[in-house]
Write a structure and sequence with these properties.
The protein is α/β, with parallel strands linked by helices. It has a single domain, classed as P-loop containing nucleotide triphosphate hydrolases (Rossmann fold), CATH 3.40.50.300. The protein has 7 helices and 10 strands. The strands form 2 sheets. It has a 6-stranded mixed beta sheet, with helices on both faces. A 4-stranded antiparallel beta sheet has the order 2-1-4-5, with helices on one face. Helix 3 packs parallel to helix 5 and helix 5 runs parallel beside helix 6. It is globular. It starts with 12 loop residues before the first strand and ends with a strand. Bound molecules: adenosine-5'-diphosphate and magnesium ion (MG). The site of magnesium ion has 2 residues, from helix 1.
């Protein structure tokens, strides 16, 4: 039997949103997401673009299990999440999703290594080997040489690389990034995008929310959201 052609092997779906609506109660009600369907397979690298107020953060909060749809379904790794209790959703989030935000969110009076290890302390999981795994994550983002620095002594681009290390240290199914280069100059933006390319090549699944063309052009796939409606391409 010949080896199957890897390009034709169908990867499992990490994200499956079906007909999701999110309505915020107001007068009149705000339809922040309107009948959104989206599938993301393992290893996909997707950019979500759209103007301010279009529903990007609402979509990110939904995908990150920080918010629940008003209607519709959301399967993460094949698990229907909309009806799960809060505690189950929190555990699922901790195990399967790594977040990267615009403003890094590193703890100031901790070293770079401690900042990455903290993701494992709060996330539970085995105690042994935390340091090794944190060091391995720092190596993957090229920050080994800064392991004992406090975040204040790092550049913005370096801080974001540490935040990425923290996001991937538990080997999440999904890396969710909200304007990850919003606080970076163009050179550091390029370095973070190079890092995303490497992570994608290592098999990570990446969803990046952005309004910057420099960022969305690098992804393998783009969807656009306007007034809560998602369109591909
Ligand atoms: P984006 O991130 O693309 O700027 P958002 O997802 O934050 O857009 O918001 C989409 C729409 O939903 C906007 O009209 C916003 O005002 C509205 N919205 C967001 N959160 C709430 C909320 N908690 N209550 C009422 N309206 C909200
Ligand atoms: Mg937003």
């Amino acid at each position: 039997m010949p080896e199957p052609d890897r390009s034709t092997v169908t990867e499992p779906e990490v994200i499956r949103l079906h007909d999701v609506c999110r309505v915020f109660p107001a007068e009149p009600p705000v339809h922040a997401l309107s009948h959104v369907s989206l599938r993301v397979r393992r290893g996909d690298y997707l950019a979500v673009v759209g103007p301010s107020g279009s529903g990007k953060s609402t979509l990110l909060n939904t995908l990150g299990l920080l918010d629940r749809p008003t209607s519709g379904s959301y399967e993460l790794d094949g698990i229907e999440t909309t009806g799960l209790r809060d505690g189950t959703r929190t555990r699922l989030r901790g195990h399967r999703i790594g977040f990267v935000f615009q403003s890094f969110h590193l703890l100031p009076r901790r070293t770079v290594l401690e900042n990455v290890m903290i993701a494992m302390i709060y996330g539970g999981g085995p105690r042994s080997g935390r340091r090794d795994r944190a060091e391995a994550a720092l190596a993957r983002v090229g920050m080994t040489h800064r392991a004992n620095f406090p975040p204040e002594r790092l550049s913005g681009g370096e801080r974001q690389r540490v935040a990425v290390a923290r996001a991937i240290v538990r080997q999440p199914s999904l890396l969710l990034c909200d304007e990850p280069t919003g606080n970076l100059d163009s050179r550091n933006t390029g370095l973070i995008l190079d890092l995303f390319d490497e992570l994608r090549d290592q098999g990570h699944t990446i969803v990046v929310i952005t309004h910057e063309d420099q960022v969305s052009e690098r992804a393998d796939r783009r969807v656009r959201i306007i007034d809560g409606t998602l369109t591909e391409g």
